[in-house]
Amino acid sequence: VRLVESGGASVQAGESLTLSCAVSELLNSFNNIGWFRQAPGNQRDFVAQIDSSSREVYADSVKGRFTVSRTLGFRTVFLQMSGLKAEDTAVYYCRARRGPDIYWGQGTQVTVSS
What we know:
- The chain contains no helices and eleven strands.
- Strands 2, 4, 5, 6, 9, 10 and 11 form a seven-stranded mixed β-sheet that branches.
- It starts with a strand and ends with a strand.
- Helix content is 0%, strand content 54%.
- The chain is mostly beta strands.
- The model has no long low-confidence stretch (mean pLDDT 97).
- The protein has strands at 3-6, 10-12, 17-23, 32-38, 45-51, 56-58, 66-71, 76-81, 90-98, 101-104, 108-113.
- Strand 5 (45-51) and strand 6 (56-58) form a beta hairpin.
């Protein structure tokens, strides 16, 4: 299984950005696909996920600002981020779970300047 993130960039606070996660296998073959982020010196934290029934779950810190979605045909999961804050600065990782197996992408850097 390969997950490839893209879309990371340096932006100003208040701006929007959309990350993409291209998945090598059918999205519905996974229990869920989510986004995590890790800032320097911090642990990797949950951001959002979407499951095989299209149910969405968000961390409190991003509710109302971030939206996770997927396109089954293109095998891609998106993270639309708006109202970005300096504290959103991190490497963002895509993670897929299938039963007990976890797969990670290589990450994409998001830097928000205030």
